[in-house]
Amino acid sequence: MKKIIVLLSLFIGYWPALAPAALTIEITQGMEGAVPIAIVPFAQPAGGAAPPENVSQIVMDDLRRSGRFEPVPEQNLVSQPHEPGQVRFQDWKTLGVENLVIGKVESSGPDRFNIKFFVFDVYRGNKLIGFSVPTTRKRMRHDAHRVSDLIFEKLTGLRGAFATRIAYVTETKSAGKRKYKLEVSDSDGYGPKTILNSKEPLMSPAWSADGKQLAYVSFEKKRASIFMQSVETAKRRKLASFDGVNGAPAWSPDGRQLAITLSRDGNPEIYIYSLAGGDTRRLTRNAAIDTEPVWSPDGKSLVFTSDRGGTPQLYSMSVQGGRAKRLTFEGKYNASADFSFDGKRLAMVHGAGGSYRIGVLEIESGVFNIVSDGRLDESPSFAPNGSMIIYATEEGHRGVLAAVSSDGRFKQRFSTRVGNVREPVWSPFAGGAR
Amino acid sequence: MMKKLNLIFSLLFMLVVAGCSSKGDVVDAGTVAVEDQSASSESADNFKDSGMTELGDMPEALSHRVIYFAYDSYDVSTQDRDLIAAHAAYLSSNPGSSVKLEGHGDERGSREYNIALGDRRNGSVKRMLELQGVSPGQISMVSYGEEKAAVEGHDESAWSLNRRVELIYAGM
Question: Contact A318/A301 with Cβ under 8 angstroms?
């Protein structure tokens, strides 16, 4: 709690006027199977300015919340080496850890630092990786997440996604008036920044593939409009504001088009909007609901929700149009799809027995698993490395965010003190860059 | 909240009807419920002064302006057909009037699918109005899906009141 307050006050120092409440993560299920790892607190610079962040603590928290590692508590560390020459592998073998991380933060000029770190295989007695990462006071937290990414990738073979961000919508009520915000924070909930404030509902944020833009739906003029907005500069552009539905924006992988839902021709249909020309091309032609398009990572097809078979189910269709192929057959409600970034899995909202939970479909094999256990879970979004799915759930009738490993074994919750938080979307890898 | 306001305005509506009965005209007090909540303490005369337009004769049936739907359905129930017919009769005989349909859903399931459901509910009402002679230009639509619940609650008693289309008359 003390740490949170420190982090929060740092944050308030950066954006005194905005200062939305930070989300804090608690792990709610499944440390079994996590691999023990020793992370020795990094040495601090002898002279010069103190670094603004505790890099080894950030790395420890990142690896723990991946669900794959269990960092050894500091009091159990047998020694505190900071240089490769100081490591005695026998000590660490006795402790039963497979891997050891050591490092130091050095001052390299005014507001400039170097993060030097090494990862060892304790049993083989060799160095796996060692890097020197130059950083600045401002970028240090981001670069600490990059250190976590490098360690995670070396030890799991999977690219790390710690240095990414999440976008989400918050709703608060004061004096009977509702306020809606579109916010962006680091993937650990730290440093939330308000992108847009409104008295009318905001919905359906979607990241561009380069991580620089968000598309979203705003009801600010008491009608639905789709906007795109730069995350950094706040410059925005209105894309669609027809009578009826203007919703469910999804960027094409090449960033040149968005799939959107419009009902201007009589009922909700999917259209392709070209950013260069500002023109729309109708894709679906059906008397039923067609909405919630998502692009396959190769950009060649879309998956969407349709009730053309009587209940909402997921279908795929070529971006050139043509026949729709039904993908989901389990249960009476499957909607709100999200592709894993390798295109092999779909996360969705699965309704059954009065509960709405997050399901994952392996597209090729058809294997389907339910990975969440709430009553009103919605808005699943894959991490860019496919390891986790973030989604919206409820806790005491308040909307909160949660994340689950894509196999359903490891769960965590993002807590906040006020209001409702919903519609989380995980940025692509590029979304972490500033 | 909405329900309470509706009640207040139903009462106001009745007062206005009583106050104007000698002249035989009626002010659309229901409009104010959506557009301006602060007007609740104002008199009927103030409604007129504040830019509101009289809509002419409005049958009693038109004080019912919410149509409810079953789960995951956009079919209008038989009992609501008469209600829609009354609105259609009014709109078609007052071609200068217009109505905004606001479609809504309950909180369950996907948010954008609920937007689509609200839109289909709007579409069902719109089609019935048009079949009975209302010009398409008199009708505008917005779907809020689950974003603006009429009743805050997490069971069927709340959900059934949230799956709805509201008919909102505007001054012309």
Answer: yes
Inter-chain Cβ pairs, chain A and chain B, closer than 8 A: 99
CB spacing of B120 vs A268 below 8 angstroms: yes
The Cα–Cα gap between A292 and A258 comes to 12
Helix (H) or strand (E) holding B74: none
Predicted confidence band of residue A26 (pLDDT cuts 50, 70, 90): confident
Nearest CA to A293 out of A331, A351, A346, A368 is that of: A346
User: What would the two tokens of residue A106 be?
Assistant: 């050095």
The strand order across the sheet containing A213-218 reads A202-207, A213-218, A225-230, A236-240
Which residues on chain B are in Cβ contact (under 8 Å) with A241?
none
How many CB atoms are closer than 10 A to CB A282?
13
Highest mean pLDDT among A187-191, A342-346, B21-25: A342-346
A303 has which bridge partners? A294, A316
Instruction: Give the burial string for B98-113 (b: 16+ CB within 10 Å, else e).
Output: bbbbbbbbbbbbbbbb
Pair B123, A322: CB distance under 8 Å? no
Q: Chain B residues with CB inside 8 Å of A423's CB? A: 111
Cβ–Cβ under 8 Å, residues A68 and A162 = no
For the entire predicted model, the pTM comes to: 0.86
Per DSSP, the three-state class of A186 is strand
Q: Which residue of B has its CA nearest to A380?
A: B110
For residues A389 and A360, what is the distance between their CA atoms, to the nearest angstrom? 10
| Pairwise CB contact (< 8 Å): B113 & A335 | yes
Of A244, A266, A378, the CB nearest to B109: A378
Q: What is the ipTM of this complex?
A: 0.91
